[in-house]
Specification:
- By secondary structure, this protein is an all-alpha fold.
- The chain has a domain of 35 residues.
- Helices cover 56% and strands 0% of the residues.
Length: 61
């Protein structure tokens, strides 16, 4: 099919720039949160619980 080029109206350009800047800020913030969460998880890493006695799969029979 045909390819058409669509352009943004001049009066809307500023709004798009603001949206793009806000998205970039949000992405940076989310990356900081993910990094902080990973650091926190690493600092408080716990070992899995090991049960001394396994529960029978045939309970009640």
């Amino acid at each position: 099919g045909k390819t058409t080029t669509q352009s943004i109206a001049e009066e809307d350009v500023q709004s798009y720039r603001i949206w793009i800047r806000n998205r970039e800020k949000l992405e940076a913030l989310f990356q900081k949160i993910i990094t902080l969460g990973a650091d926190y998880a690493a600092a408080f890493k716990s070992t899995p619980n090991k049960f001394k006695k396994r529960l029978s799969t045939k309970r009640g029979k």
